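Continuing the series of single-chain predictions for the mutant panel. This is the parent chain; the variants come on the following pages.
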Amino acid sequence: MAQGHRKGAVRTDRWDRATADLVPPFAVVDLEAFDANAADLVRRAGGHPIRVASKSVRCRHLQSRALATPGFAGVMGYAVREAIWLVREGFADVFVAYPSVDLPALAEVTRDAELSREITVAIDSLEHVELYARVATSAAHPLRVAIDVDASLRVGRVHLGVRRSPVRTAAQAATVARAAARAGLLVDGLMFYDAQIAGVPDDNAAVRVMKRRSHAQLLERRSEICAAIGAETPLRFVNGGGTGSLHVTRQDPAVTELAAGSGLYGPALFDGYDDFAPRPAMAFALPVVRRPAPGIVTLFSGGYIASGPVGRSRMPSVLAPHGLSYVGTEGAGEVQTPLTGPAADTLRVGDRVWLRHAKAGEACERFTELHLVCGDEIVETVPTYRGEGKNFG
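Parent structure:
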């Protein structure tokens, strides 16, 4: 039975009272929902530590809040310069889960004992080994690396999952590990991101069958690859999973840790999962600025489109008031967003509409601060990465 909170039950009236003195656009994070989501992620992880996926949070204060929850440990970052910044701000054990070509930043890591100790960077090919060797050969401190292994499902020629690593077999992973060791890199771990399980809503029976088949295949492949790499070098961690697959990936004895971030905010794309239902913790308010015709209101701004395949699922979802939908010929716009529906005629210029981003941390690129709400009060206002002047791509 899913534990959580479905979209229709959100009490936005509390947010209205808490933010009555604010002029939209602005974003809020409901701390009660955030903490409940963190606790549910820990429950679903079943005793495995969870790395906080920083790209899905993009707020140092809230990353620290998650890490203060028993069951969370370490950060999964997305850029080397981000990792350097976080470590210097007091964060520990940052795994940059995407390969980097930022040689000056990698060199900076190897010049500093603390950065070298706390930062691990992904690789997935001999090309990466050759590139990183340019800084490793003259390094004062070792550069830690983790091999990102393709965790997608292959059915004949069909590829189900994201296009990440070219490393798929135990032999391929061992080849990269041996080359990394010869180049003076310290092989620290392995990563398997099962996006076709973690990031796909349970829309139909075919998806559910695909997820079960993918998990069964991964159980076998992960075991073989971990054994092959373990024979070459001791591994500090084997990372797997995401918000949508914690309860599945935790079943693999080869996995030592999991990763999650989106589930803390509970964005709209997670409304369609069978096994869990995070509470919507992050939302943003936009003001009504026009009433161009009966049954239509226009909001200021709103074109906060999520990454991924282009489509309506990537647009923000209208949370409140109920009874509003996008005008098909315009959608969510750069400077204005028209909405239509029965609720439109109940709104006046200056009223608010609450929306949720389709994904999680991407919304923080639109706002410099987050208003943290508890009950019907703002208890603190904290900067996002953007608000701290940080843009890591």
